[in-house]
Amino acid sequence: MRFTLRIWRQDNEFDKGRLVVYVVDDISPDMSFLEMLDVLNERLIAEGEEPVAFDHDCREGICGMCGLMINGVAHGPAKATTTCQLHMRSFRPDTAITIEPWRSGAFSVVKDLVVDRSAFDRIIESGGYVSAPTGSAPDANAIPVPKADADHAFEAAACIGCGACVAACPNGSAMLFVAAKTTHLGLLPQGQPERESRAVDMVKTHDDLGFGGCTNTGECTAICPKGIPLSTITRLNRDVLKASV
Q: How many Å apart are CA 236 and CA 152, to the nearest integer?
C-alpha cells in the first residue's frame, strides 16, 4: 500500500509550524499506524533527515500516549480505538492522510506531533486521589459496594488520560477526563468523604489551566477510545452543585 502523508512539523511551541508532505510505499495493511510512522522515520534517518517526533509507549491501547489527529479525527477513523491500535487497512491505498497533534491551548506543542499533557497531571494533583489512610489492601469483597456503583466506577476508571476528549471538543474542554477521575473515586466508599471537595478542586484547576467550558456537545464521548459516557459529566456537575449548596 502507498500513502501520501501530510504531517505537521514544528520545532517547538514558539515555532509557527507547517504541514510537510511525505510518500510511503510498501506499507502492509496489517501494520499499525505507528508502525507506518516508524517506517517513515527509518527512511528519514537513513536519508539524513530529522525523524518525525510522536508520542508512544505501550502500543497496546493502555497508556494513552499515542494521541494524534488523523484526517481531523482524534485517534483516527476507527471507533473506540487508540492510534497505536489503528491498522493501515482502515485507510484506502493511494490516499492522502493528514496527521496533526492535539489542538488545545492547554496542550503546548513540544515538537512535531508531541504535545505537553502535564496539565492533566496538575488536575490529578488537585484532588484525584483518596487522602485518608486506608492501610493495606483489604480482602476482596471486604467492603461491600453496590453492583451498579461498582460497574459505573470501573467504567470511569477505564479512562487512560489520552486527551482525545480535549482535542475533539469544540471548546477544548477536558471535562470528560475530570469527570472520569472524580467518578471512579466518588462512587466507592473510600472516596466518599472528599467527594464534593474533590469535584470542586479539580474543576477549578481545570478552568485555571485554560481548558474550555463544557457545553455538552458530546464530541468527547463519541471519540473517547474507552467509551467513557457523558453521564460521568452529569455526575460531576451534581457533585459540584451539592458542594456549592
A: 13
CB 102 within 8 A of CB 43: no
pLDDT at 138: 73
Q: Once rounded to an integer, what is the mean pLDDT over residues 102-125? A: 96
Alpha helices (H) along 32-143: 33-46, 118-125
- Average pLDDT in the 95-99 region? 96
Mean pLDDT, range 180-208, rounded to an integer: 94
Q: Are strands 3-9 and 96-100 parallel, antiparallel or unpaired?
A: parallel
**How far lies 66's CA from each of 13, 33, 128, 240, in Å?**
19, 10, 23, 32
C-alpha cell of residue 172 = 477544548
Question: For the chain, which domains are there?
Answer: 3-111 (3.10.20.30), 118-244 (1.10.1060.10)
Cell (9 digits) for 60: 497496546
Q: Flag whether pLDDT at 132 surpasses 80.
A: no
Identify whether the C-beta of residue 199 lies closer than 8 Å to the C-beta of residue 182: yes
Residue in 125, 134, 120, 121 with CA at minimum distance from that of residue 188: 134
Can you tell me the distance from the alpha carbon of 9 to that of 20, in angstroms, rounded to the nearest whole number?
7
